[in-house]
Amino acid sequence: MATVLFRIAICSGLVIWPALAEDASALFRDAIQPVLKQQCLGCHGDGQTLAKLDLRTREGMLRGGERGASIVPGDSARSLLFQAVQGADVLQMPPGGKEKRLPEDLIAAIGKWIDGGAPWSEAAAGRKWDYKEEDLWAFRPLKRPHDPALNVDHFIDEKLRQHGLKPAPRAAGPTLIRRATIDLTGLPPTPEEVEAFLKDTSPDAYPKLIERLLASPRYGERWGRHWLDVVRYADTGGYSNDFERPNAWRYRDYVIRSFNADKPYDQFVREQIAGDEMDANNAEYLIAVGFLRAGPWEHTGMSVEAVTRQMFLDDVTHNTAAVFLGLTLGCARCHDHKFDPIPTRDYYRMQAVFSTTEFARPKVPFLKRENTSDLEAGLARMREIERRTQARIHSFDDRVKHLAPDELEELKLYRKHMQLDKESLDRYQPKAFSVSSGPVDGFTDGGPNLKLPERAKYTAPEVRILANGDIHSPGERVEPGVVSAVARYAGLQPPRIESGIAGRRKALAGWIANPANPLTARVMVNRVWQYHFGKGIAADANNFGKMGGKPTHPELLDWLAAYFTDHGWSVKAVHRAIMLSKAYQRGTRHRENDPGNAWLSYYAPRRVEAEVLRDSILAVAGELSPEGGGPGTFPQINEDVARQPRHAMGSVQPAYRPSPLKRLRNRRTIYTFQQRSLVDPMIEVFNGPSLDMSCERREASTVATQAFALFNGKFVHDMALAFAARLEREAGSRKGRVERAFRLAYGRAPDAEEMRLALAHIEKLTREHLTTPPPPKPERKPLVHEITSELTGENFRFTQQEDPVEYEENLHATDAKPETRAFADLALALLNSNEFVYVY
User: Fold this and answer.
1) What are the distances in angstroms from CA 7 to CA 10, 103, 109, 114, 116?
2) Beta-bridge partners for 49
């Protein structure tokens, strides 16, 4: 039989494995289905169905076309498909005469398959994947060195010796404390912190610094942001309405708490995938599974429920694999993965794990650790906005049937705003943006348009392999499962996953978090390394397959992964191992030939991320609010963007309203409201993360609009003036203020030349500001928007509602002395310098 199949493979242009089972299922999977895909589906399934015959699924074959059923399982002689490939009658397939006729061996195999009951199974083993053994490094068990004296530097130094490289000397103290502080907290060190570090001459001064930073609550805010990049966190759902996810902020705060508490990573994994199945009464767990709903999703009145449901299943399947396993599982949705040993069957078996996962928004009491201090005021503000919207709607009640076209458009607009307002009101309620196994009566949550079935009527949906990922082409049914290559190459056997409604995700989470799973620990320590050095040991943090970059230091990656699990899955332990190394403490200036710093002979400078830049500007200006947690706040953003109309299905979104109080809008960027349809332009222009796709690594492009934002933007000018006012409060003389400015911005004092130039600059600009008054404060005018009506095609103008709470203005130049304005110009230059914007 193997000879027959080999001949079939050669004639069909396929390459198959020689050892094949002879039963009908294997016969179909290994030989017949590939030929069907090559020879038949172009006319009968992929893009067209001639004679109304669809051969993509067994059901399609049984249903048949204009001539009737194409197969009769168990009876090849009566099957039209077999008759057609034999070409005995006028029905000849494939068309084209004898030259196109299938080989006799294949025709016989088709007959044998039909006589065997025509079983249908996907071609998991019917082709050779395009990989070599060295491409499978991530699937193989960790190589654990047994020498307890090993550390990070052992592996780095070995590579340097192999390449004949000498390492750079240790970085200077001010550089080192700034590097470590920004890495672990996302903020620059204060002048007092720098001074204390430099005065400490004890051998453990640097280790004590690392411990202090790891214990800071700012640590969780910094490293929580990295995690939110990867999981695509946002406070809205995206698409045409971009509906608010009013309780998603509780997941963001859960992530920050978890990093601050150094929650064991395996527990962190379990909680996010299956917290509700672990303990449905644990508030923290119900919040944690918000991870599963992090991607963009929307169901509208015009959506097909089966389509939007499949969108969620595809999203959660692919991203769970990418986030925790570093696999591009989504590539196997339509076909066997072209480069990694992941068949389509594995994709849908893993999807079946999530097939009983339903959306829920259960009541979950606020935790003592959550910041609820502004909920009452925020709710009152939102209720007043809703009341005003409702009043505008009611103003049309008496004449709704006789309204003019522009009045109809206005009524439609405020009805849309009311729909959005009602979602926003939930922001302040003790609920969780969560999931459940099967619907939870009274707490199902598909957004404003989707109502899920009652639990009593719910049954576990079956999952079938979808030909080309098309929900209209279901194939073989599959049971819940995991990626089979882990068992094949690492020996970790797949978990037992029950076919009932509950428990599927819990089993998957246990398999992912198993220390014998070689992917999980490798992926996480690689992410931690990447955020410290600018690039991972393996370059593609979300792709450990063939098309991802192979590790430059594979032994080091395995050592770190083993160290991670051996130290209780402690992320902070990994920080210590990395940051206490000589490699991390090296200077940036180096003459060795190490292109791209591939072998880590020096420390590569890098630009800070957008959020770090904004937070650092607020910090040195003395305007950063220390408050954390709670619903997302709305920062000051570019007014041209804030005032532009934004589409919502059938209408326009309410105007952007920055938080009226400075202590709210000046919180750290991680606490700002993340809206998919309106990203803060400053964050966007400095390569902020995509809110739709997993961002495993920030880019650092250099474009002209960055200069416009940082040198000309109103936010930066406002903060530069606040910086100058701070200097005036904290130092008496001009020289003292210049020195304080440098220490706040750079963590060092200015040298003699810098001091001379700065004082001359202040003297000159003070004279200019004495004779040149600043422009007056701008008036806050009502915002008028104009859109094209979907009802009439005419332009329609309307005035957006104003915020019911009075806006607390920033310090304005008209309220500052000429010398203060001169220092603001110096501050602006410091905030735009490379030394402020880069980590060295």
Assistant:
1) 5, 9, 11, 20, 21
2) 44
Rounded distance between C-alpha atoms, residue 662 and residue 556, angstroms: 46
Q: Is 220 left (phi over 0), alpha (psi -120 to 50) or beta?
A: alpha
DSSP-assigned letter for residue 376: H
CA neighbor of 522 nearest in space, from 548, 561, 485, 563? 561
Q: Where are the beta strands (DSSP E) in 624-710?
A: 647-648, 651-652
Cα 273 to its chain centre, rounded Å, is 15
Dihedral-angle region of residue 14 (phi above 0 means left; psi in -120 to 50 means alpha; beta otherwise)? beta
Quick one: how far is CA 252 from the chain centroid?
12
What span, in angstroms and rounded, lies between the C-alpha atoms of 287 and 283?
A: 6
Tens digit of pLDDT for each residue in 302-341?
889 999 999 999 999 999 999 999 999 999 999 999 899 9
CA distance 786 to 71: 61
Backbone phi and psi for residue 562, each to the nearest 5 degrees, phi listed first: -65, -40
List the alpha helices (DSSP H) in 606-751: 610-621, 639-642, 662-665, 681-685, 704-707, 714-730, 734-746
Per-residue exposure over 327-338, b if at least 16 CB sit within 10 Å of its own CB, e if not: bbbbbbbebbbe
Count of Cβ atoms closer than 10 Å to residue 381 Cβ: 18
HSE, side-chain direction, 13 A CA sphere, residue 611: 23
Distance CA 351, CA 334 (A): 13
Residue 719, both tokens: 């903060």
- Of 59, 98, 154, the C-alpha closest to 474 is 59
- Its pTM stands at 0.85
What SS3 class is residue 68? strand
3-class DSSP state for residue 686?
coil
Q: Quick one: tokens of 788?
A: 């094209």
What digits encode the pLDDT tens for the residues 630-666? Answer: 999 999 999 999 999 988 887 899 999 999 999 999 9
Residue 795, H or E segment: strand 795-799
218 sits in which H/E element: helix 217-231
Q: CA separation (Å) from 588 to 69, 79, 163, 363, 436?
A: 72, 74, 19, 52, 50
Strands 434-437, 463-466: pairing is: unpaired
Nearest-10 Cα torsion for 623, 627, 631, 635 = 10
Compute the distance between CA of residue 604 and CA of residue 179 in angstroms, rounded to an integer.
11
Bridge partners (DSSP) of residue 839 are 606
Q: pLDDT per residue over 670-708, tens digit each? A: 999 999 999 999 999 999 999 999 999 999 999 999 999
